[in-house]
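Reply to dn_fold:

You asked what the input looked like. This is it:
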Amino acid sequence: MRPRGRLTGMCRNIKPLFNFEPPATEDEVRAAAIQFVRKVSGSTRPSQANTEAFESAVQEISAATMRLLDAMVTQAPPKNREEEAAKARAKWQRRAQR
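and this is what came back:
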């Protein structure tokens, strides 16, 4: 059993959504929620018996994420999506060269 409360790293497919210009879209929030539910459930595609529970979780997490993003404040200037994507690509290339 994995110890609780210990940080082991965030799922690489879930991207930060806060403080971007333009702000995160509902589609981006839903995509992050789907990735989270997939990770937690251990299933990329739920069985027919679990589809309703899976979709319900995605909707609840999407709504909670939107509330969180709307409530958060920062003094930092918004990040540029293209610059952040370029940084991520460079990081990936460094990792691939090892």
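The CA atoms of residues 18 and 69 lie 6 Å apart.
Hope that clears it up.
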